[in-house]
Every structure is written in structure tokens, then in C-alpha cells.
Write a structure and sequence with these properties.
Structural class: alpha+beta
Number of helices: 19
Length: 919
């Protein structure tokens, strides 16, 4: 970089990276570094730039650049090197200036939240502090510019923050400049000397000075010793010194301070207000420029000699609005800004240094006047560490310096400090609100409700930018409290009851429960017990509330088969027969309408685990958003009469898979060709057809009095001589249903209980049918209609025919006739179907179809459909205790849910005459 290029200001980074070579006459001379920083105001021209123009007697900085020039709001340092006077000016522009502040407001997006905007401003402030620390580390003299005549006390907090940051960063700065060619004192203290801080104030129009230099209330003939501007400067000096001494920014030993102020020299300068006559001001500036040019033309001097010549010359007004100061009597004693600064610069250039320590035993402070080349090396290293880390070898040091910026938060960010204190006081109140009226163990729903209450209490007291951060901490604290021994097991039984244990794991096959482990290993238990009968209904036993379909529909009945009905004749439903030692469940296949829904794993003993967030080995829990009604989301399943009319193709006709099994129950939405590992249905033969006595009913335990009688179903059998043998008798309730025309079934007294005397016994067959319901307390009864219970008070059996129950959809749940004392209603569930098949040429086809919930709930059916019951037998079809799909269980109905959505579809039994043997 040539000397011609140094006539204009450049950025500090460009100056340090340039190859500028000084003239030989100045190469060995020392260099004084003057830094200028401060705040700007909304005024016609920037104040700090005009000061540099005044001090250098040149138009260096443009005074008309606006904020719309495309610049950034980041802090930056501009440098101007005046080689002949041996002064390097560093001008810091930051968000404190009006132009930078306007750029920052334009850069801040309109949609930014309160926290984002606060972080944006604090980032600019931290950047400003790093630039200030850099200037306090490389400058000899610093000028703090104020836009008015009032001292801003916030600088006290800023300087204390900078001092704390400097003490933290000193070891890092020492490591950065340890190889620079400077003195040991500079390397230890990381600065050429404790910089001297000077203050420049701009006087506004509120302070007027009389023409004779005296106060209006005093004697006009007696001038004051000092002008009002000089007295203002003395008052500001006393005020500033007192503030900094009280806060210990200034101490007796100057070497330990961030900066110093002189004890016997002026360190405050007040720039007078601009003259209200703009024409006179311009003429005065023109006159002063002409005089300076004449003086420079006579003898070109530099350095201290030029300064002495300037002091001996006639005082001239400055560019910064000091015109007219020489026209007032007493103000002739006031110096210009350049003279004010040069009395301090002279101490640096003459290598006398600053002796600003006070007290009884003042310690001399170090001082060094570097050459330009030495200063550039040190300033370049500090610039890379503090401002722009471009070299990889000191990138680690720069990162560590950035980590030390946390010490600024307590000094600069008063808003955040207040907000944190306020939010910290609100946290205990929110914790108390969360823990109020809590049981020892509770579910996710209770946790979220209590958390919402805690957040409401927190939002009433917390304020400021730390609101969101402490709200997240409240979330974490409440979750830790809940998960640390207070979390209830989230598993729900198939009857929609929660497990009463705290969070636990399920025992693996062959593993025993262990309460001492954390979390404990336990089986699910809802403390719900009920009484159920076995497959044939002859034995009752208590049962635990099941949590999986195997224990609900298979294990309990297998346990009772060993004691009761294990040796009875039965029709086995087809189940999965593995051909490999480790068969796998089939992949989750859905109907097209089910693909968009949420999935839930089927609850099986081998796969259901206790719930832990994020741990797949622990059990599945119901999320907060799961429906609370008795039926979860299901795939589309066709129901109603259309479902009955369609004859489902039998799975026996296809070869089922021997590698993959169906992980659940068989229903209308299952993929074809898969079978479950066990059947949830049971079909056993309780005895011969004559074993049932229609006068005594079923002699089994648990029946309500008079409700154990099956309903008669009389079927007309055509004569063997008739040609239309094998005619099917429709039971769909249409006009073609039995009895046949001209053949009455009723006797003389209108009774349907016996055969009519006008018919032969060979032409009539009687089948007995009974839909048995059982409640949770083991009370059983036979239903003779959707809303009617069989009640036989005397001998002779029931008179109600079975046509009503066979031609209508029977409810799966009905209110129990023996309600308890509690307010919650008890429901009785359809659990068995009794069919007495006579020894007659008659085929009874069984095809049960159950819809255990409102549409689109699928239709459940056994693994084999259209089962032909052999003649002469009392058959018992046991329905599943619970109905479960791959989407979850079909829960029993709640109090406010209609029961007509839970039903067994009509057409469960069909009768047809058997073909007679060939004669």
C-alpha cells in the first residue's frame, strides 16, 4: 500500500494485511494510537467522523453516507494513518451509532419473536464489547464521544464488564502475542500501556452563553475566572471520576485498571453548540482554512515542533462547531479539540508515558512507544484472536475467547438477569401446583393435566426473555418427578382398566417376577376380578382381568378344561401349524382405508411390554391422544344385512401358511391364508340330544331362577314320499319361511310347546336354542329376545319360540338384571350359544358373526365358517371373552354408548332337511 492510499480511511483488517512501507524518515519513529468510540445521535452529520476530520485537518470521512448504503449492522473499525504527525486513528462504529442502529432495525426480520430479537441485539452488543477490548489493548489514547453534555452512566457497567472479560482473556492473549517483537511488559500486560481515556461531549442549544462571558445574574463588569464551558468540563470531570472510583473501575494503581484518567490534566472536552447563523459559520470556517493554508505554506513541520508552533499561533476555530469561540471575551482561554488531544499525544510521542497512579505509594506503570511495523504485528495477532480468526493455528484461542463472553451477561444483559430471577422465583410455585392433589402413581393423562396447571401458574409470574427456557425446564422437572417412581403403568386391560402397578417390565418366558429390580418385573394387574364359566358352562371359576387375548380367550378355558370339559367331544377349529422352529407373525397388512390410521401392536404375552418412552423392549402404552371410547380406530368392515347375505369362502379351501401366523383374531379385515396360533372360539358337545330336559332346563351353576330354559325351534320335515325332499327352510324372516302352507304347528289349545295332533311325529323336528349371557359376577341367563330374559316360574318349560332370536341381530351386551349398589351399570355379555340337535334327517349349519363395536368395526368369526352340526347332540358354542384386532382391543361399551352397535348378526343358524337315503 502506498502513501497515496493512506490518504483515505481503510478497515483495520485491510490495514493489517497491507504491505505498507513507511518513509525512511519516519520508519524508526514511534507511533501514537488514538481510538475513537462512543454513541451517535440523530443529527445532520456523524459526530465521530467529523472529529477525525477536525483532528487531521483534512476531509477524510464522508459526512453524508446514510444507512441505505447496503452496509451491515456489525461493528467494524476504520483506520487512518497520519504519517507526518505519527498518529494512527482507529474509529469504531457499532450499533451505538444511529446509522448502524438503523441498519440493525432493517436487518431484523419482522416475524422474529421476542426471544430471537433479544438474542439478535445481545449478539451485536457482545460483538461491540470484543471490538472495544481490542481497542483498549492496542491504543494509547481513547476518545469517548457523547452526543450531548450528559454523561451516560451505563458506561460504568460496560467498563466493568470489559475489565472482567479482559481478566478472563489475558492468558489467551498472552499466548497469542508471545512471539511478537515487543517488550516483556507488553507481553505480560497485553497492551503497550494502560490507555488514557478522554471524554468529548457535544453541547446542545439548551446551554447559552452571554456575549460578555458573565452570568446574567451576576455583575456584568466583573468577568468570571472560567467560561461556562470550562466550568461544565470541570463539573463533568468531577462527576465521572467520582462514579468510576465508587465502582472501582479506577483504582490507585493504574496498571491494574482497564484505563486511566489524568490526575492533573483535563480529560473532558465540551464541543460548543453550532451557531444558529449558517452563513457566518461557513465564512468563519473559510477564513480559518485560509489561515491554516498560509501557515503550512511558510514552514512544513511535524511532530512535537509542529504542535508547539500550533500552540504559539493564534487560536483558530475547529470544524466541529467551535467557530465563534474566539469572539467572546472569557472564552479566549478555551482550547480547541486538537489542542486538548495533543497535550496527551505529546506525552506519548515524547516517550514520557502516563503516570496516572495515585495514593501514598504509586507504582509506575509500563509504557512502550512501538514503531509501525512492531505495532502491526501485535495488532494483527490480537485482531485474529479477538475479532476475525482466519489462521488455523490460533483458531483454538479464538474459540476460547468466545467462550469467555459469558462473563458479559451479568453486566450487560440486565433484562435477562431480571427475567431469570423472576422465572426462578416462579418455578417453585409451578412445581407446587404440579404436585398438588397427586396420587403416588398416575398416568400420562394426569401428568399432562397437572403440567398444564403448572404452566398456567408459571405464566402468571414469569416474565421476560427467559420465559421459554425456564418453561422447558419446568417440563423436564415435572417429567423427571413423574418418571422417578411415580409413573403408573400405562397398559390397559381388555376391559379398559389401567394396570395398578407403577411402571414395570413384563417377565420374559421362564423369568420370575422381581419387585426389587428397577424397574420391577411384574405381570399386569388391574385388580379387577370376575367370575366366568368354562367352555361347556358346567363349572365356574374366578379370573383376573386379562391384558392379552391369549389369557382372555384361551388360557383360562384351557385351565378349566383339565377339571371339567377336557374329555368332551368337540369340533376343533383350524389353527396355525408351524413348519419351521421359529415362525414369525405376519407383517401388518391393512385394508386400503386403514393405511392412513395410527397403528398399535397386538397385545400378546410374548410381545406386550411395559411402556417406557424411547425403549422398544418395554411395554406399549396408550398415548394421550388415544380414543377413550370402548372401540378404537378400525379398518372398514361391512356390517348389517349385506354381511349376512354374503357367504364367506372357507379358509379350509385354501392351504394356510405354515411359516407366518396371524397375530390376532380372525375377522373380516384379516389377510387370507393366515391362521392364528390358537382359537378364541370353542365348540363342544355336552351330551346327546336327549340329555337336555325341557322341563328342568340347563342344570348348571350361576343361572338366575327360571332363566336356564332353551327356546324351542320347530322345523317341518317333509314326508319321505314327497318329491321336493331336501327343500331348504329359510330363516330370514321372509314370506317363504316355515311353517309350510296348510300345515299348522299349533295344537288344539294354541300351544307351541308340543306337536300338533293333526301332524305325524315324523314330519316335525324340534331344535332347542339358547343365547346365554353372563355378567362379571358369574350370573347367567338365557335371552328370548333382544330385550327380554327367559323366566319360567313353573314346570313345562318356556313358551317363547326361538324364531325371534334367530331372525334378529342379538345384542352382544345387555344390562344385567341384577345391578349392584354402585352407580356404574353392569353389563352381561353373550358368551355361549346352546343348540340341541335332534336325531332327525336335519342339517343345522352354524355360522356365527359378531360385530363388537360401531362401524367400521370388522366382523369377527371363527377360523371355520358354515359348520354343520352332527345330529343327536347338545352343542355349546363359546364366544370369545374379548375381541381384539391388530389395531387394539374392542372395549366393552361405556355408560353413554348405544348397545345396538354391539351385536351378533342374524343368520347364526340355518336348517335344511337332509337328503334321504336311496331306496
Amino acid at each position: 500500500m502506498k502513501e497515496a492510499n493512506m490518504a483515505f480511511p481503510v478497515s483495520i483488517g485491510t490495514l493489517l494485511q497491507s504491505d505498507f512501507t513507511e518513509d525512511a524518515a519516519y520508519r524508526e519513529d514511534g507511533l501514537c494510537i488514538v481510538g475513537i468510540f462512543g454513541k451517535g445521535a440523530m443529527q445532520p452529520g456523524p459526530l465521530k467522523e467529523s472529529l477525525v476530520n477536525n483532528l487531521a485537518d483534512k476531509h477524510i470521512f464522508s459526512l453524508f453516507s446514510g444507512a441505505e448504503d447496503g452496509g451491515t449492522p456489525d461493528s467494524h473499525i476504520q483506520a487512518f494513518y497520519q504519517q507526518e504527525s505519527r498518529v494512527l486513528y482507529l474509529l469504531l462504529s457499532s450499533v451505538c451509532d444511529s446509522q448502524q442502529l438503523l441498519r440493525a432495525c432493517q436487518a431484523l426480520s419482522t416475524g422474529a419473536g421476542h426471544s430471537d430479537a433479544h438474542e439478535f441485539w445481545k449478539g451485536l452488543e457482545r460483538q461491540h464489547c470484543l471490538h472495544l477490548l481490542y481497542m483498549f489493548s492496542v491504543c494509547h489514547v481513547l476518545l469517548l464521544v457523547n452526543p450531548n453534555q450528559t454523561f451516560d452512566v451505563t458506561y460504568d457497567r460496560l467498563f466493568r464488564a470489559l475489565d472482567a472479560l479482559r481478566q478472563k482473556a489475558l492468558p489467551l492473549i498472552r499466548a497469542a502475542i508471545k512471539d511478537c517483537p515487543v517488550s516483556k511488559e507488553w507481553k505480560v500486560n497485553c497492551r503497550p500501556c494502560p490507555p488514557r481515556l478522554l471524554f468529548v461531549f457535544q453541547m446542545n442549544g439548551t446551554l447559552k452563553v452571554s456575549s460578555n462571558g458573565s452570568d446574567s445574574a451576576g455583575n456584568p463588569d466583573k468577568p468570571k475566572k472560567h467560561s461556562p464551558r470550562r466550568r461544565l468540563q470541570h463539573a463533568l470531570e468531577d462527576q465521572i471520576y467520582r462514579i468510576f472510583r465508587k465502582s472501582r473501575v479506577l483504582t490507585n494503581q493504574s496498571s491494574n485498571c482497564l484505563f486511566t484518567v489524568p490526575a492533573n490534566q483535563a480529560f473532558v472536552y465540551v464541543i460548543p453548540a453550532m451557531d444558529e447563523d449558517p452563513v457566518g459559520t461557513l465564512i468563519g470556517q473559510l477564513r480559518s482554512n485560509c489561515i491554516l493554508v498560509d501557515q503550512e505554506s511558510t514552514a512544513v513541520l511535524s511532530g512535537p515542533r509542529r504542535y508547539q508552533q500550533m500552540r504559539r499561533s493564534t487560536r483558530q476555530p475547529s470544524f466541529g462547531g467551535e467557530s465563534g469561540s474566539g469572539s467572546m471575551g472569557s472564552q479566549l482561554l478555551d482550547c480547541t479539540l486538537k489542542e486538548f488531544l495533543w497535550q496527551h499525544v505529546e506525552l506519548v510521542l515524547t516517550k514520557k508515558g502516563f503516570d496516572d497512579s495515585v495514593g501514598r505509594n504509586p507504582q509506575p506503570s509500563h509504557f512502550e512507544l512501538p514503531t509501525y511495523s512492531k505495532w502491526v504485528q501485535v495488532a494483527s495477532r490480537l485482531h485474529q484472536v479477538l475479532i476475525n480468526n482466519t489462521e488455523e493455528e490460533i483458531a483454538d484461542l479464538a474459540t476460547k475467547v468466545q467462550s469467555q463472553l459469558k462473563v458479559l451477561e451479568g453486566f450487560l444483559d440486565a433484562d435477562t438477569k431480571f427475567s431469570e430471577n423472576r422465572c426462578q422465583k416462579a418455578l417453585p410455585l409451578a412445581h407446587s401446583a404440579y404436585q398438588s392433589n397427586l396420587p403416588h402413581n398416575y398416568t400420562t393423562t394426569v401428568h399432562k393435566n397437572q403440567l398444564a396447571q403448572a404452566l398456567r401458574v408459571y405464566s402468571q409470574h414469569a416474565r421476560g426473555v427467559a420465559f421459554q427456557r425456564y418453561a422447558m425446564q419446568l417440563h423436564e422437572d415435572c417429567y423427571k418427578f413423574w418418571s422417578n417412581g411415580h409413573q403408573l403403568c400405562e397398559e390397559r386391560s381388555l376391559t379398559d382398566q389401567h394396570c395398578v402397578h407403577k411402571f414395570h417390565l413384563l417377565p420374559q418366558p421362564g423369568e420370575k417376577p422381581d419387585m426389587d429390580r428397577n424397574p420391577p418385573v411384574l405381570n399386569h394387574n388391574s385388580r379387577g376380578r370376575s367370575t366366568s364359566s368354562c367352555n361347556c358352562g358346567r363349572k365356574q371359576a374366578p379370573r383376573e382381568d386379562p391384558f392379552d387375548i391369549q389369557s382372555a380367550n384361551y388360557d383360562f378355558y384351557q385351565m378349566l378344561e383339565e377339571k371339567c370339559c377336557g374329555k368332551l367331544e368337540r369340533i376343533d377349529f383350524p389353527v396355525f401349524q408351524p413348519s419351521t422352529p421359529d415362525p414369525a407373525p405376519a407383517s401388518n397388512q391393512r385394508l386400503p382405508c386403514e393405511a392412513s390410521g395410527d397403528t398399535e401392536r397386538l397385545k400378546e404375552p410374548s410381545t406386550a411390554q411395559s411402556h417406557t418412552p424411547g425403549d422398544p423392549s418395554l411395554s406399549l402404552a396408550l398415548s394421550l391422544g388415544q380414543s377413550t371410547d370402548s372401540l378404537g380406530p378400525y379398518g372398514e368392515g361391512e356390517g348389517g344385512e349385506t354381511q349376512v347375505q354374503q357367504k364367506r369362502p372357507s379358509l379350509v379351501d385354501r392351504q394356510p401358511s405354515t411359516v407366518e401366523y396371524l397375530p390376532g383374531m380372525m375377522h373380516s379385515g384379516c389377510p387370507k391364508g393366515l391362521l392364528p396360533k390358537f382359537s378364541s372360539w370353542s365348540l363342544v358337545k355336552l351330551g346327546s340330544g336327549k340329555s337336555y330336559n325341557c322341563h328342568t332346563g340347563l342344570e348348571q351353576p350361576g343361572y338366575l331362577p327360571g332363566s336356564s330354559f332353551l327356546l324351542p325351534w320347530d322345523i317341518v320335515i317333509r314326508s319321505r314320499s314327497e318329491e321336493d325332499t331336501g327343500l331348504s327352510e329359510s330363516l330370514d324372516g321372509s314370506t317363504s319361511s316355515w311353517p309350510a302352507p296348510n300345515k299348522t304347528l299349533v295344537g288344539k289349545r294354541g300351544s307351541t310347546g308340543g306337536l300338533g295332533r293333526s301332524r305325524r311325529r315324523d314330519d316335525m323336528a324340534r331344535v332347542f336354542v339358547g343365547f346365554e349371557y353372563e355378567d362379571s359376577r358369574g350370573r347367567r341367563f338365557i335371552s328370548c329376545g333382544p330385550d327380554k330374559i327367559v323366566k319360567v316360574m313353573g314346570p313345562g318349560g318356556t313358551k317363547d319360540p326361538a324364531t325371534r332370536v334367530l331372525n334378529t341381530d342379538m345384542p352382544l351386551y345387555i344390562p344385567s338384571p341384577s345391578q349392584g349398589r354402585g352407580l356404574k351399570p353392569h353389563f352381561a355379555q353373550l358368551v355361549r350359544l346352546y343348540i340341541v340337535v335332534p336325531d332327525a334327517p336335519l342339517e343345522i349349519t352354524l355360522n356365527p358373526q359378531v360385530q363388537p363395536g360401531p362401524p367400521p368395526c370388522p366382523i369377527f368369526h371363527p377360523e371355520q365358517t358354515d359348520i354343520v352340526l352332527p345330529p343327536d347332540g347338545l352343542w355349546v358354542l363359546r364366544f370369545p371373552y374379548s375381541y381384539v384386532t391388530d389395531r387394539g382391543p374392542c372395549y366393552p361399551p361405556k355408560e353413554n354408548q348405544p348397545l345396538n352397535n354391539y351385536k351378533v348378526l342374524r343368520g347364526i343358524l340355518k336348517a335344511s332337511t337332509a337328503n334321504p337315503p336311496q331306496q
